[in-house]
Design a protein that fits this description.
alpha+beta; Ribosomal Protein S5, domain 2; Alpha-Beta Plaits; 2 domains; 6-stranded mixed beta sheet; 11 helices; 13 strands; globular; binds 2-deoxy-2-fluoro-alpha-D-galactopyranose; kinase; Ribsml_uS5_D2-typ_fold_subgr
């Protein structure tokens, strides 16, 4: 997204020069639905970004404009609360967290827009939250550190958007590093940057453009199911704090105390964490095919055990598996739609893009969107 587009919209609306911030969406190589179970994830920030333009306006009111929706919204800093859906929640949610932390804000004008596809599992909302947070920090000279900022962004999602998300998306957006994935321990928030050295392979995203209206409530349901499993295991193993500490034999010990569904969900999380750890070892050795196998395992688990896939995503993963020049593929993000991430041999990528789009069209009668993404730095001032 060209920041000039957002800057000139800002100037035309408010007749001021804004501060500009860019904030990226993310991919995740492996480790899905592990973050809120205090496990590991392997995301990276990408060159699909939100741009935020902001300036003070000398009042107590905040005037917002979404370039992509061509909608405006005004709220007063003294009196605002979550709305019934919509992009305003992401901005107000961050403002609320910054105020709660004791920082003084005054009214501002804000315009945002970007090229992170909405609902594609690329974390457009985290990109916006993180971008707004840095923009406010810069505008009011708050000098906020990155870890508190990304936590405010996550809380905004919990308290205003109503999604009890983990920390992965906000962490990736805020902490991204060019050409590196972030291997993040979601319990301690210890992390290390992992060079993305894929050799002959290229990351390709295939966007089903399916957006499930119940995705948010199904996400919160999965969280609750994981917690049910933990509660049962804790009765036998009080040292357990989260699914991160649980093994399959421990889960077996309580299988009469939990439903089949809860058991299967928990198994998936335990196995996905293991796949991530094995996958990282493979990446370190440059074994891309081995890593790809872990990705296929991740997709199967998400589809069959965690049940967050959909026919379009399953079709794309199966198609990828039938091509020996694709090292691995899987659905990415919360699920119920959005993208698959594919590791495709560079020499075959045009063939793949053509063939998978044609097969998808034939099966579902819809266009497949394909993105080739670069891995970038995190949220930053332009
Ligand atoms: C969504 C959430 F926001 C993340 O925290 C994470 O749980 C992901 O789904 C699934 O891995 O993107």
């Amino acid at each position: 997204m060209n920041p000039d587009t957002i800057a000139s919209k800002f100037k035309s609306l408010f007749d001021q020069d804004p501060i500009l911030v860019k904030s990226p969406g993310r991919i995740n190589l492996i480790g899905e639905h592990t973050d809120y179970n205090e496990g590991f994830v392997l995301p990276a920030a990408i060159d699909k970004e939100m741009v935020i333009a902001i300036q003070k306006n000398g009042s107590d009111e905040c005037h917002l404009f979404s370039y992509d929706y061509q909608e405006s919204l005004t709220f007063s800093l003294d009196d605002f609360s979550p709305m019934d859906g919509g992009w305003g929640n992401y901005v107000m949610g961050v403002v609320a967290q910054i105020q709660k932390a004791g920082h003084e804000l005054s009214g501002f004008n804000l315009v945002f827009g970007g090229n992170v596809p909405i609902g594609a599992g690329l974390s457009s909302s985290a990109a916006l939250e993180c971008g707004v947070c840095l923009a406010l920090s810069e505008l009011f000279g708050l000098n906020l550190e990155r870890i508190p900022m990304l936590k405010y962004a996550q809380k905004a999602e919990h308290e205003f958007a109503g999604v009890k998300c983990g920390i992965m998306d906000q962490f990736a957006s805020m902490m991204g590093k060019e050409n590196h994935a972030i291997r993040l321990d979601c319990r301690s928030l210890e992390y290390n940057y992992f060079p993305i050295e894929l050799g002959d392979y290229q990351i390709i995203l295939c966007d089903t453009q399916v957006k499930h209206s119940l995705a948010d409530s199904a996400y919160n349901d999965r969280r609750n199911e994981c917690q049910e499993g933990v509660d049962a295991v804790q009765k036998v193993h009080p040292e357990v704090k989260s699914l991160r500490d649980v093994t399959v034999p421990m889960l077996d010990e309580v299988k009469d105390k939990i439903s089949e569904v809860v058991n299967t969900r928990c198994q998936y999380v335990i196995e996905e964490n293991e796949r991530l750890l094995t996958g990282c070892e493979m990446l370190e050795k440059g074994d891309i095919k081995g890593f790809g196998k872990q990705m296929y395992g991740s997709h199967d688990g998400l589809s069959q055990k965690y049940e967050v896939s959909c026919p379009e995503l399953d079709f794309l993963a199966d198609f990828a598996k039938s091509k020996e020049y694709v090292a691995g593929a899987r659905m990415m993000g919360g699920g119920f739609g959005g993208c698959t991430i594919n590791l495709v041999e560079k020499a075959k990528k045009e063939t793949y893009e053509k063939e998978i789009a044609a097969a998808f069209k034939e099966e579902f009668g819809k266009e497949l969107q394909i993105y080739e993404v670069d891995v970038t730095d995190g949220t930053r001032r332009v």
